[in-house]
Every structure is written in C-alpha cells, then in structure tokens.
Amino acid sequence: MLTVCYDPYSGTLGRFTRAEIFDLVSDAGYEGINIPVNSAFLGELSAEEIDDAVNLAEKHNLVAPTIGFGKHILTTPTRKDEALRHFEIVLEVAKQFEAEFIGVWVNPSADVSRQDSLDSLADNLAQMVPACDEHGIKIALEFEKGCPLDNYREGVAFVSDTGLPVYLTCDTYHLFNDGADPHAAALAMQTCLGDVHMSGSNRGEPGGGVFDFETFAKGLKEINFSGPLVIQYKMEDVASIKRSCEFTRKFREMVQADS
Fold first, then answer.
1. pLDDT at 258
2. Rounded to whole angstroms, how far apart are CA atoms 176 and 235?
3. Is the per-residue pLDDT at 259 higher than 70?
4. What is the mean predicted confidence (pLDDT) over 86-113?
5. Per-residue pLDDT reduced to its tens digit, 66-82
6. Into how many domains does the chain fold?
7. pTM of the shown model
8. What is the pLDDT of residue 67?
9. What is the C-alpha to C-alpha distance for residues 230 and 5, in angstroms, rounded to an integer?
10. Regarding beta strands 35-36 and 32-33, do their DSSP bridges make them parallel or antiparallel, or are they unpaired?
C-alpha cells in the first residue's frame, strides 16, 4: 500500500541507539521501518535483540515490510554455507515482523567474475525461495552501478533468464547514476518491481539533487505500483529525517493521484 518507511543507514547507524532510531522514525511521521539484519542494528542477532526490535516497532506502531539481508555474501561462491545460515536468521526476523520482502544488495565479490557471482546468487536464491514462499515472503534484489546487476535492465534480464520468482529493488540514486529514464525504467520493471528506495541524486535526502521524481511517479502510477517506499540516504542533518518523510508522502500522492 505504498507504505512510507525509513531505512537506518549511513549517518544513523552508529550515531543513535536502536531505541533512539525508533523514536526518531516515529516522531517524524513514518509508517514503517526497514530492519537491517546486521550487528549495527541488531547486535549479536540474538533472540533477545530481535525481540527488542519487535517490541519497539509495536510500541511505536511501526510496520516493517522490508528486512535487509545484512551479510553481503550471496554472490560469493566460497561462502554459500555461511550465506544460507545467515538466511535462516533473516527469515526468522522477517517472519516475526510479518514482512513482505527480504532485500538483497547484489554486491560485487573480490576476485569473482560477474558470471560466477550471478551463478552463486542464483544457486543461493533457489534454496531460499521455497522457505520464503512458505511464509508469503518475497526476495527483492537491488541493482547498482559496478555491481553484478549493474542496472535495471540487467536486473529484469536476471529475473527472466533464471525463472526465479524474485523481484527488484529500484533505488532512485542508482537510476540517476545509470542515466536511466525514470519513466521507461518503471515500465520495464512492471512485472518484477518489489520496492523503491528513495534518495536524492547525490545520495542525500529525497528531493535533493536533480533526479526527476515527477516522471518516476508517473511511471509507477502507470504500472500500479503498490510496494513500500523506503527512504535510504546518507543522513547528516537529523531534521532531514522528517523532511524526507514529508517529501515521500507527497511523492506517494503523485503516484496515487487520479488521472
């Protein structure tokens, strides 16, 4: 339902405690929060830490439609066992939050070719998807310049070529860096767009820079996009947390506006 969410990210993690982050997100008017499954947000990933995050979300009436796969190792052939062990933790977190998506950044791996990286990713996903399906959870892959999935076109091709029932995360910052037409990109991802990351074209708060949000909103409207809108940017000014929420709410209105 186009839930407006905040992703604890650069400038937030390490600067504020988990409880303080939940306070900031709630006070700024967000409806949801992304839960990154890493030590910066969930400590030792213990049951107690996860329960604390669940309780904080309930306290602040925040949903968590997206869960971040915190270890960026799904493209590394030699770390498949470790990746699947971590997936078990991520899946448990996703179940507890009744999340819709597990988000995966398709990271480059040192000394691994692009094809080997994608083969490793596909092998891991093939083992992860059945467990996700059992609980109604989807996997969304984030493309980025210089990564094995460099852009939305490669993302769409990967989904099509593998036949895996996975989706894409489209980050406005990555679209801008690709020089992509926002409207055309939205239309191309119609069948596989899971969620959207909102960011300025300089990785600052959404609305900053020169990315064409209006044209992107038009494309999302035409494909009837309804996934989460997750604000992810390098936070320097704490007041920007609220400004970003207000901007994204206005963006949502553009997507939902009557023709």
1. 82
2. 19
3. no
4. 97
5. 999 999 999 999 999 99
6. 1
7. 0.97
8. 98
9. 5
10. unpaired
Q: Give the residue-averaged pLDDT of 137-151.
A: 98
Residue 170 domain boundaries: 4-256
Contact status, residue 225 vs residue 186, Cβ threshold 8 Å: yes
**Look-up of token digits 């006070």:** 27
Single-letter code of the amino acid located at 41? F
Q: Which of 33, 30, 70, 69 has the alpha carbon at shortest distance from 54?
A: 33
Report the C-alpha gap between 235 and 162 in whole angstroms.
Answer: 36
| CATH code for position 135 | 3.20.20.150
Residue tagged 């309930």 (tokens): 58
- C-alpha distances (whole Å) from 34 to each of 14, 47, 65 are 16, 18, 7
Contact 149, 155 (CB under 8 A): yes
Alpha-carbon 63 to chain mean position? 14
- Side chain identity at residue 218, one-letter code: K
The encoded tokens of residue 87 equal 């997936």
Dihedral angle of Cα 118, 124, 126, 127, to the nearest 10 degrees: 180
- Say which DSSP state 44 is in: T
